Amino acid sequence: MAFGLLSRLWGRRTLPERLRYEDAREALEGHQRATKRELAARADAPPETLYYLACDDDLEVRSLVAANPASPIHADELLRTDSGVEVREELARKISRMMPDMPRSERTALQQRTVELLEKIAEDEAPRVRAIVAREVARCPTIPKQLATRLARDVEISVCGPILQYSPLLSDEDLVELIATCRIQGAVDAIARREGLSARVSDAVIATLDISAVAQLLTNPSARIRENSLESVIAKAAGIEAWHQPLVMRTELSLRAVRRIATFVSRALIDELAHRNNLDEETSIWLKARARDRIDAEKPAERPALDRNAVTEAFARGDLGDEMVMDAATTGQKTTVVLALSLLSGVDRARIEQVIEAESGRGIAALCWKAGLAMRTALSIQTYIAHVPKNNLVLPRAGIDYPMEPSEMLWHLQYFGIDTEVN
Predict the structure, then answer these.
(1) What CA–CA distance (Å, rounded) separates 141 from 168?
(2) Sign of the torsion formed by the C-alpha atoms of 6, 9, 15 and 17
(3) Is 21 a residue whose pLDDT tops 50?
(4) Please, is 43 exposed, middle or buried when counting C-beta atoms within 10 Å of its C-beta (0-12, 13-18, 19+)?
C-alpha cells in the first residue's frame, strides 16, 4: 500500500527537497491531505512531526508513517494498536526487516525496545499481520527463540508454515514435539520440506502416516532417512500413489528396496528404477521383466458400470458403503457416485453435483463425512470424479482420518446449502 502511494506522490511534491523544521510545521498547519501524506513518507521529517501524524485521521497518512524507517519508536508503538489493519501490516513489515541487522546480544536500549515491539506485533489479532512477521523473520537467527516458537505454534498455516520450514532456531527436539502436537493441516508438510532434515525428525514425520507430509519428505533430497524408516514407508506405499514417484527418486535405495518398489509402481516408474547406476545385472534383468509384465496389467479393464437398480438395492440391503463407492469413483462412474452419495447422505443429487462441479475438496470431504464414508473414499471422489486440482486436495490425516473438525465440515455443508443434520 505504502509503495503505491509513494509512487502517486512522486510526481506532485509540495514540500521542498531539503526539508526544514519550519516547512514541516507549516505543512501540518495547512491541513492539506496530500501534503501530510508526502510529509509522512519523508525520511527527513522531524521525529515529532511523524509522531503527530501517527494520530492523523487519514488511514494512508498513518500507513506511510508506519512504513517510514525514520519514524520514532514511540510512534511505532502507538501504531501497533491502530484500528487499521493496513497500518499494522506496514508496521509489521518494517519492524521485521530490521531484525537481520540486529545483534543477538548487547543490544542498545532502542534495539531491545524494537525487539519487544516485534514480539507484540506477532500477537496481533489479524492473521495477515502475523503472517507478514513470520515470512520476514523465518530465516532470521537473531530474533528471540520464544518468538520463533510462538509463531511456529500459531493456529494459521500462513503464520506457522514459514517458521516451521525455515527457522534456524527450532531444534530437532522442538520439531519432534511440534509434529506430535500440531493439528494444523500443512504444518508437518512444512517441516518435511526443511533443508537438511535430520533422520530423527524424518522418523517423526513418517510416524504420522500423513500422506502429504511423507510425500514432501520423500521429495526433499536433503532429508536424511534411515534405511529401516524407508522400508516402513515402502511397506505401506502400494496403495498410496502419491508416494510412488518420490520413492523412486530417492538416491539411497538399496537393491532390496528397488525390487520391492517395482512390485507396485507403474511401468514408467519401473523404467526409471532400471536406469539407476547402482544396479547389478540380475536386478536390471528382473526390472525389465517386471516392466514387460506391467504393460498388460496397466491396460484399463473394462468394468461395467453399476446401474441405478444395483445401487438402490445395495442401499436397501445395507451393503452400500466404501467399497462400492470407491470402486465406482476410481473407474470414473460419476452418475453412480452421485446416486450413492445422495442415498447415503440424504442430500439431493443436484446439490451433490453442485459440490462436485465446484471442485471443492473440503465440500466433498464434508459430504462423504455426512454420508458415513471413509476419508480415503472422499479422496478417491476428489481425484477421479471431481478432478480437484492437486494443490486443493484434502488429504487424510494419519493416512485414514478426516483432517477437519466436525464444526468445519458442518460449515462447508452449510456453504452449499446442505442440511447439517448428520445421518
Answers:
(1) 6
(2) positive
(3) yes
(4) exposed
Closest CA to 396 of 418, 370, 369: 369
Q: Contact, 368 vs 421, CB < 8 A?
A: no
Look over the chain and give the mean of its residue pLDDT values, rounded to a whole number: 88
402, 210 Cβ separation under 8 angstroms: no
DSSP summary character for residue 280: -
pLDDT per residue over 142-163, tens digit each?
999 999 999 999 999 999 999 9
Yes or no: say if 265 and 293 are a contact pair by the CB < 8 Å rule. Answer: no
Range 81-86, long-range pairs (CB < 8 A, 24+ positions): 84/59, 85/126, 85/128, 85/129, 86/1, 86/59
Residue where the block lists cell 500440531: 182
pLDDT in tens, 191-208: 999 999 999 999 999 999
Report residue 203 as a C-alpha cell: 522418523
Q: Please compute the mean of the pLDDT values over residues 316-336 and round it to a whole number.
A: 89
Nearest to 235 by CA among 271, 217, 212, 209: 209
**Whole-number Å distance between alpha carbons of 188 and 236:** 19
176, three cell numbers: 519432534
- Output the pLDDT for position 399: 63
Sign of CA dihedral 120, 124, 129, 133: positive
CA pair distance 407, 409, nearest whole angstrom: 6
Residue 359, helix vs strand vs coil: coil
Entry pTM: 0.68
Q: Which three cell numbers stand for residue 238?
A: 502400494
d(Cα 366, Cα 362) in Å, to the nearest integer? 6
Handedness of CA 113, 115, 119, 124 (dihedral sign): positive
Q: Give the position of cell 501490516.
A: 89
CB of 157 within 8 A of CB of 145?
Answer: no
Find the radius of gyration of the CA atoms of the chain. Answer: 29
Alpha helix ranges (H) inside 220-360: 227-236, 244-249, 255-262, 267-274, 281-297, 308-317, 322-330, 334-345, 349-357
Alpha carbon separation from 341 to 148, 155, 347 (Å, rounded) = 45, 32, 8
Is residue 22's pLDDT more than 80? no
